[in-house]
Design a protein that fits this description.
Two copies of one chain form a homodimer.
Chain A (H helix, E strand, L loop, with lengths): L7 H11 L8 E2 L2 H7 L2 E6 L9 H10 L10 E4 L3 H12 L4 E6 L4 H9 L3 E5 L3 H14 L3 E2 L6 H15 L7 E5 L4 H13 L4 E7 L4 H8 L21 H10 L2 E5 L1 H15 L5 H12 L8 E6 L17
Parallel strand pairs in A: 2-10, 3-4, 3-6, 4-5, 7-8, 7-10, 8-9
Antiparallel strand pairs in A: 1-2
Helix pairs in contact in A: 1-7, 1-8, 3-4, 3-7, 4-5, 7-8, 8-10, 11-12
Chain lengths: ~325, ~325
């Protein structure tokens, strides 16, 4: 671990940079959900963020943090969807061309959103190695500034601003729960929680069928996810180097949930909270409902990371009308 | 028309009474929806209100406005769902027993919510006359203070507080669109818009298959809805006496939408805004998407009146998982 890690000050600086450029999304709760969960649960609605996910925070912070933006001719990344969409939106706002490498199996809704935001989409096979290889080919053709989807200090700091806003609410949270994919959100969230609270637990939630962060956290050694098969399309990547280091240092627990729990949680959020969340977000909700995390406590904050769902492919939504 | 009508001052007074007792729901928008609608549209999310609908505003304002609350032993109403649920919640908060007469065909989710809020539910056949008759029977058994679902000045004034909050946002709305059932929401909304703006249009939206307000507005004479067959279960009632008077005086346009447009709008709100709204709310959204209202303008506010949907009965949601 030679790369410097982002710290709480970096999250605060990111919030300053992003002020007025990302939405301050609402925090909601519902008595019906509290009754189900047996605790008070407050949801930070990043599904209502521009682009339908928290990812704009990190992507935009990364571009706004460039030491010499005028020297960057174009930007590029690889992404299962939301980061690519966020980088496309961020690049467009700064008048930069953008290319996004998208692995097979990505959500069609997300890929369509990337194209709608004006970026060039390059398809590649699933799996992290294939994504990196395809991006290398893109760069060999035309050099570009690469914004990594999660293993990047500016991206991590930007993602932490969602928790910063959640913690500014007049609540006394015992824990904050966020999903873990590559670890950008949980890393930034942990920095915000550690910087602003005493004793509030940070809990990561992961699909049991993509449990690389759980195994890494438990074993103390970063392991690879391979090509996991989970409905939570945003959480198929492996946890990054910086991200694992933040996880190891600042996160209290990582819990896993089943695919059935993820789908049930999506439906419960729709029913109780009137919100559409994508499976990756439902992973954190399922962790709260499952009650397996020891540190949840009586008042819980959950980061609803995104709402980009292919309605036609959702297990409880038909293709109609 | 002998009954005094509520005025803008009554809406402002209601907002004072309701402060801290109802949620200040968020106002959201989405680029994807704006692109579809060809204008900027801002949504006041009363589907995120306590009880899942705007109705708590009116019901609670009515109870808090009682001249001598100590002399009221119990409260009662008839309601297709959301008002009954709201009155049950309001009554519980003031430690008053509550009875709700519910017509056949009401949403199961809504009836379950009324029971969950601690009220007694009495079933009756569909149609306004049957509702009134069943309520009379309930009252003959045990006297109660009746809070009418819409033809009540305190209820109308309370409903207007949602628009008051919407208009407090830093926007310059050309129009505000709200669904019309009995007319509590559109009446209160019109008072708020007239009191706070110059030249912002007030547009009512109604299902074509329950177009009593449209026909009343057009003919200048209040007509009865009969027992309309529309998926918008909250809009099956006929417009009230006070409500029609406010409609006639302060509303600029009433437009109607088809059942297919209502269902399509529900799905679009889910897709673009990540919000679950009930068919009655989707009526207002469909009116914006249909573009038939002449006074919409470039910046539109829409009151998303509620989010109480039987997921198992929704046309594009299956009963799974």
């Amino acid at each position: 671990m030679n790369e410097p890690l982002p710290d709480f000050a970096a999250v605060v600086a990111a919030a300053g940079r992003l002020q007025g450029r990302v939405r301050r999304t609402p925090v909601v709760h519902a008595d019906a959900f509290d009754a189900r969960a047996g605790r008070q649960v407050f949801f930070k609605c990043e599904n209502l963020q521009t682009g339908g996910a928290f990812k704009l925070r990190g992507a935009l912070n990364a571009l706004l943090s460039l030491p010499d933006p005028a020297r960057v001719a174009r930007v590029a990344t690889h992404s299962s969807g939301n980061h690519g969409n966020a980088l496309a939106i961020a690049a467009r706002s700064l008048h930069l061309p953008c290319t996004v490498v998208v692995p097979e199996g990505s959500s069609r809704t997300k890929v369509a959103a990337i194209e709608a935001a004006g970026a060039r989409v390059v398809h590649c096979p699933a799996g992290f190695a294939a994504r990196e290889a395809a991006l290398a080919t893109v760069l060999a053709d035309k050099p570009a500034h690469v914004v990594h989807p999660f293993d990047d200090s500016d991206v991590i700091a930007g993602q932490g601003t969602a928790a910063l806003e959640l913690l500014a609410e007049p609540l006394a949270l015992d824990s904050v729960v966020a999903p873990v994919g590559g670890g950008g959100l949980i890393g930034g969230t942990a920095l915000a929680v550690r910087g602003l609270t005493e004793g509030c637990a940070v809990i990561g939630a992961e699909p049991a069928s993509a449990d690389d962060a759980f195994r890494s956290f438990t074993s103390g050694r970063r392991v690879d996810a391979g090509v996991p098969d989970t409905i939570a399309d945003g959480l198929r990547g492996s946890i990054g180097v910086r991200n694992f280091e933040l996880l190891r240092r600042h996160v209290d627990e990582v819990v896993t949930v089943s695919e059935a729990e993820i789908i049930a949680a999506m439906r419960i959020v729709l029913d109780d909270l009137k919100l559409l969340v994508e499976p990756s977000s439902a992973v954190a909700v399922a962790a709260v409902l499952g009650g397996r995390a020891r540190r949840l406590g009586g008042q819980v904050g959950v980061i609803l990371s995104g709402g980009n769902v292919d309605l036609g492919q959702c297990p409880f939504l038909s293709g109609g009308p």
